[in-house]
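Repro:
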Amino acid sequence: MSILDRLAINTAIFDGHDLKTSLKVIKSLGVNKVEFAFNQGYVGQLDSDMFSATHAEYLLSLMDKEELHSDALGCTMNLASPDALEEFKLRIRFAQKLGVKYLNTCTGPIAERQTIISNLKVLAPYAEVHGCVICIENGGDHNFNAFASADDGIRILSEVAHPALALNFDPGNSVSLVPNLSPSEEAKIALPFCQHFHVKDVQVHDDRFTFPALGEGIINFKGIVSSLNQRDVSFSIEKPLRMYRRKDSFPIRGRSPESIQDISAVLTKSIQFIEQLAEDS
């Protein structure tokens, strides 16, 4: 199987555009998978209707029209919030309706780590019953620093100890939250524990972190893509192009969406970059 057969595009890059247009662009790029993004604080306002059976049917109809499919859902939220159990169970049921296996989510603040662990011990068995796996992701800002380094994530897996809990690692998030660590080395540590993976590159400016096309930032993706090429792991380009992170890692969402032309150009370069690295590995 070609590495591109396991590649999805996360819809965060289309923030502000309608899903019909977004899915048409994904299909036009020769990619056959989509990861819908429903991440609190990163893609606009979310409410319970977004996770309804009616909305699931709508998304399925859009995918059917474009001949796309999905095996992952981006659904970051604070897993220690007072309503975290019911809110995340709602997302699990939504994923099942979509036929999605992997729910990718960052965790929450380190001060609430024990609550996160306790909630995951409830949520992982619930996910298993619904045919899903929760893939906890390393955070990119301090709101989600309970899992900052790869070792943090592995320790959480060990404490919860359930087969329906795995990692979804994003080396791009390491750059802003743990700048003293190597993103590529962190990815190497995390990959054996991953059932899903995110790729995004990062440029570091004097006052912010931004997200260019893959290969145009500071992350060395050669070893990462080589490892992905050798493993049967689904992955997606998860690039919140409309957003940047301040130097303190806090996310700032731009007022206006990026143009479809710019989004398409960034994705085209990124896909070609992955394909070239995979051929060279």
